[in-house]
Write a structure and sequence with these properties.
heterodimer; B: about 280 residues
Amino acid sequence: MKSKWYTLLSVIMLFSLLAACGGGGTSGDTGKAPGSGGAEAPSGDKGETTVQFWHSLGGKNGEYMDALIQRFNASHEDIEVVGTFQGSYDETVTKLQQAIASDTGPDVSMLERAYVQMFADSEVLEDLTPYLEGSGISADDFTPGLMGHSVFNDQLVSLPLNRSTPILHVNKTLLDEQGLQIPTTWEELKEVANALVVKEGSEYKRYGVTMPYDTWYPIAMISQAGGTFFNDDNTSIGFGDNGVGAKMFAYLKDLQSTGALYYPPAQDSGNIVNSMFVEGKVGMMYQSTGSIGGLSSAVDFDYVTAFLPKDEVYANPTGGANVTMLSSSKNKEAAWEFIRWMEMEEEGGLEFILQSGYLPFTKKMVESEQIQELWAKEPNRKVAYDQLEFAVDTNKDVAWPEIMHEFFSAMEAIMYDSKDIPATLDTFKKETERILAQ
Amino acid sequence: MKTFDLKIVWTALGYLLKAAVLMIFIFPFLWMISTSLQTFRETMTFPPTWFPASPKWGNFAEAMNAGPFLTYFRNSVVVTGSIIVLQFLIMIPAAYAFAKYKFPGKTLLFGMILLAFMIPGQVTFIPVYLMMADWGLVKTLLPQIIPFISNAFGIFLLRQYFMQIPEEIIEAARLDNASEFKIIRKIMVPMSKPALATIALFSFVSHWNDYFWPLVMTDSAAVRPLTLGIAMLRETEGISNWHIIMAGNVILVVPILLVYVFCSKHIVKAFVYSGIK
């Protein structure tokens, strides 16, 4: 028994020695590792410039991003891009904050669009305007609906990359069975959703429409009803006094009360609604365009996408992430070359967009043969792009991340606990004003 | 006769209760294993499938091929292994000193150690990160190891254990001219194996599973552990491939089970002994 322990201890001891030796050099022997951002630190013996690129893409999209980086490295002898997955969008933000503070930040980073303001306000993002001019690119070359979070204080601080938008996913087979049309207005949505409800006893066997627990969808509906998330001078909310918020939540509560709306539990809501939709337990779903690929391969019914129904107007926010250059970068020329190549070249962004299903972010991309062919084959993806004509991003403020948490609390109070809507919104409004005044 | 019957009833009830508790604990494991063998379509079904129509062993290969998993695995082993060894090297003499020596400031020092294990890691990670960045260590495995080489909980637990070892044995050894180091090695350590095994297991599980600390402390895949590799299997937006993620999780959990099997005998002893005394 004693010898066993000593063996174990000495084995472990060996590992710790390995770790100590591996200190600086561990990176060296992982060069053969396939995929996933090939994180080996290049030695620079070829006079290469290394560009650190942080991103938040896991799963399939992470593989497509790695492939993009490899294509870049293969076509650029003097630049080596090292892509590193840094966790979710929020985790990447945390990492960036601490890395910038300790001067260990990357050259280029992916940044969830709603966080752009916060970083731009701290003046840690490089103004890309001179770089664009130097490369003969105009800000008008990009898809207009996706530029809502790119300009801050007259500086162009980020460019769209993996961008999405909420869209209506429809089980056309179910609607056809009932002779129902795809709804285009809130009124129609209410009728169709109620017609889809199947109730046995006190148990709902099928719901009409659902949406993940997220601020995205209420924000979309606020714009549709003629409100804005923040008022014009960003001192308060733009859906309080005009009654838009109360109207929107009352509409949702009304749908919820008849089973027309299934509002999922907060935890893992995205996966819950997806699998309910796939199983035909719900006829329609508000969900990101990012789900189109996965849903297409999972459903066995006629699946189509449509614009989010309008109230007074069609409107939708956008989502996903932008790419940005850190002003602390010591390799700005090389960093820009990577951004330029990724944004403009066919084998860069276009290839990635075709693979991943995110929205095409330049006009040239939209006009390309490949995208046109894809849209002809998969009209569901075109719908998402067409809807961008009505994109409005109204949740723009450096304090958004903080206010978002308050908005979640208000949503929970109303959707889960059926708290009084005007009172809840009033509390939220006061909280927002307090935060914005800071 | 009647009391005999009652005994059977109670035993049966006891087993039922144990079975019920066992189910609660084992359920997530079974779910994970089941999901890791399903197809994408099966993971989406509602109500969920328990038994995949035909087990897809390929999911494991797909999870392994999603990144440099051997590197991740080696990093996990090196980091966790180093932490445990270094913890033992510090913890055993410290616990021995606290249990068997009298010196000024002992209570104060011990109080500080107890305080140390009440502070959550999230509170200290920014200063620690800045320190590690200052020393140029963020591209190595060391920031994942150094902050954990002292284990306050371990010192506390081991001290309690050492205190139960009779003074007479140590006195006898000293009369035989044994050095303090020899006393630790030949008497204290062998007699507290169950406690050491328990501490090692707790330490192993918590560092093997750690996600937050390695994420904030590392910048490249070359020094990242398995937990981060598996987090990378998850889609940021869109639909997650749960079958692949769960295959990754099974790979992550297997070493824990193996270590548990190895340590379990000692752990049971640790609890039995402390119960008797």
